[in-house]
Design brief:
alpha/beta; nine-stranded mixed beta sheet; 17 strands; 25% strand; binds pyridoxal-5'-phosphate
């Protein structure tokens, strides 16, 4: 195990999955656990399945393939609207996909028929956040068309808030969504088994509302992985928020001024940072960078502050003045860092289960000398 790595506590992820599943089941809501924040990592997917969630969702076909090839035993859902050029893979890799374009659903249906499969379709409706979704007024005609297609089965209706514009799922917004579902069923004389109301941003609403209405399903990533809801990053009672730890190795420790000297242009990443004058401070350089972590989604667990970061060097103000070259600094991780660290070919992924560590070499392992 080298110094710089991301530690993944599989027991905590399993615990979070189990706890949320039980909390939501009490409100009549099933969960598809979302694995895109961890690149569909099979060890993490298995921990979630051990926690009792047997439906996994991801935005990327590569991640679905990764989990399937690893033999993860679950139902798979593609979250991002399918690429028309990849419908054959969608049918092969996903049991269900979330859709907004009739022409793409037609392609899916044709490929499913050719492959002798039945592909599940959930139609996404625009709920105010303005990312993917059919405008409500156009929904009835599309639902009618999809219902007649052979090769696909209309499994239900979904909506997605928070992700692009931070629009909050309130009783008002979610009530309108439920009414839309009621009206569709009544007007078209159909039943929609799955009513998928959103993501980790729906947590506070689910736990506090008097009426979940028609919502019986949520797609949950961040809350399971990081133990917080996603509108205000509030910790969820009973969940672990430290399943992931980024660890960086210290490569330089020196006392230096807190403000730069000389004429300043933009830095390596196009920023012009303002530096407070704190006199001489203890500065430590950690072997982590923008290629591995995200600056606004990382917090040292020691008494230190992040000064800044380039592609491969992170500068810390070591307030406690305790760090030495070769030390390992542990950081709390938010979603931006989680995603980047799991994607980075340089990051060693180190899995912990029952207190035992199993290190997996990074994709781009340095040659052993
Ligand atoms: C990413 C995503 C989710 C999960 O979001 P979290 O905030 O991680 O819970 C759910 N649905 C869709 C469509 C997504 O793209």
């Amino acid at each position: 195990m080298t110094g710089t790595r991301i530690e993944i506590n599989l027991d905590r992820i399993e615990h979070n999955a189990r706890t949320l599943r039980e909390q939501y089941a009490g409100r009549g809501i099933g969960i598809t656990a979302v694995t895109k924040g961890v690149c569909g990592d099979p060890a993490i997917a298995r921990a979630i399945v051990r926690g009792g969630i047997r439906s996994l969702g991801d935005s990327r076909l590569e991640n679905l393939r990764r989990m399937r090839l690893a033999g993860v035993d679950a139902e798979f859902m593609l979250l991002r609207p399918p690429r028309p050029s990849r419908v054959a893979q969608v049918v092969a890799l996903a049991d269900i996909s979330l859709n907004t374009e009739l022409e793409v659903v037609r392609l899916l249906a044709a490929h499913a028929r050719a492959a002798g499969r039945m592909h599940g379709v959930i139609l996404m409706v625009e709920g105010g956040d303005l990312r993917e979704g059919i405008m409500p007024r156009n929904l009835p005609e599309i639902v009618e068309q999809v219902a007649t297609l052979k090769g696909v089965r209309l499994r239900g209706i979904g909506t997605n808030l928070v992700c692009l514009n931070g629009v909050v799922p309130t009783d008002e917004v979610m009530g309108a969504f439920s009414r839309l579902v009621d009206n569709l069923e009544r007007d078209l004389d159909i039943t929609l088994p799955v009513v998928s109301g959103g993501n980790s941003g729906n947590h506070n609403w689910v736990m506090s509302t008097e009426r979940v209405g028609r919502v019986n399903h949520l797609r949950i990533g961040e809350a399971i992985l990081l133990g917080h809801e996603s509108t205000r990053r509030q910790r969820i009672e009973g969940l672990a928020s430290d399943a992931f730890t980024v660890i960086g190795e210290v490569v330089e420790v020196k006392d230096k001024p807190s403000r730069p000297r000389g004429e300043q242009a933009l830095n390596a990443l196009g920023r012009r940072p303002e530096r407070e004058d704190l006199g001489t401070i203890r500065r430590a350089i950690v072997a982590l960078g923008e290629q591995d972590v995200a600056l606004n989604a990382l917090r040292p667990r020691i008494n230190a502050r992040i000064v800044g970061m380039c592609s491969d060097q992170l500068v810390l103000y070591d307030r406690g003045a305790t760090l030495q070259v070769g030390d390992a600094v542990a950081f709390d991780v938010a979603y931006g860092t989680l995603m980047r660290a799991m994607t980075s070919p340089y990051m060693e992924k180190c899995y912990l289960r029952h207190g035992e560590a199993v290190a997996i070499a990074p994709v781009m392992a340095a040659a052993k000398v």
